[in-house]
Amino acid sequence: MTTTTGSCSCGNVQYEFTTDPLNKIVSGSATANVVVPKDRFHITSGYPKQYSRAHVSGAKVTVHFCSDCSCVLHKELDGDAYRGTLVIPADTLTAWSRPFNAQPRLGMWVN
Ligand SMILES: [Zn+2]
Predict the structure, then answer these.
(1) Full set of structural domains in the chain with CATH
(2) Cα(48) to centroid(ligand 1), Å
(3) pTM over 0.85
(4) What confidence score (pLDDT) does residue 97 get?
């Protein structure tokens, strides 16, 4: 098992997750994300806020963010492809725990 840590831009909200291995990266022209099992993710400091909205695909998206710096920490989607997982922006990962050696395994286009 590998523990990966991260935080929002101001550092008030911090998290960690454990995976074996850190195995999925979702990226596109605008973002790179890590998909991790929800039950292995924990907020270790701070209290993120959240809001939900309907995605054009019909899925409900819940966005968790820092109320101080507005940095998005993770998203939950209720669609079948993401059930039981969290989507974490890769730029929130702590520098020393970034999965530099991870290889993309999933390509996805969401309209
Ligand atoms: Zn913050």
Answers:
(1) 2-97 (2.170.150.70)
(2) 9
(3) no
(4) 59
